[in-house]
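Reply to dn_fold:

You asked what the input looked like. This is it:
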Amino acid sequence: MRSRFHKELDELRARLLRMGGLAEQAVDRACQAYIDRDLKRCQMVLEGETQINIAEREIDELAFDLLAMQQPMAVDLRFILAVTKINADLERVGDQAVNIAERVMDMVELPKVDLPVDVPRMATAVSAMVRRALESFIEGKAELAQAVLEMDNVIDRMRDDAFITLVKVMNDRPEATRQALDALLIARNLERVADHATNIAEDVIFWVRGADVRHNVAPESTATQPVPDAR
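and this is what came back:
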């Protein structure tokens, strides 16, 4: 029974990693669509949403079955709980990619204008956060997850800079207001992807260390505990 349980845990891990790949791919495609004004990539993002939604349901079903049938304890329980939370965040990453694709589709229908904001740079940084959060899960390393948390402030500053710049564009060049608003919403969507990557990193730390670090609070009772075997 124990051997079967660990095989099912491995299957749960594998499914979540595939889900992570789908979500990361969706963001990359949406951002490349912005750079190239590529409607084909936008359509790929929209079509991929169904696959992500199906994967989310399947992962939750497997996780809930394991909780109900196996009644896991300690690190295995934390792992399954973390998977369900990470799964939800990955689905929302897919939703943000769809939002970006829809904004790009609107921008393509409008005259192209030069906007003094580096959305591709922000997209690269956000994609790196998602990738590193998934790597921290794959390797079960809280220190990798902690590095993701430290990147979030950088993305927030980039979002704030984009807001200031694009509002100025709307004030100075009213004819570019719609394009600037689309770009502003894309920056907001990217910041939300970064928030989900941060949530994933926090869940990895919870799984590995048993520490709740949400809202920058680490309980004293867990902050100094040694890292247990996270399988």
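The two ends are 17 Å apart (CA to CA).
Hope that clears it up.
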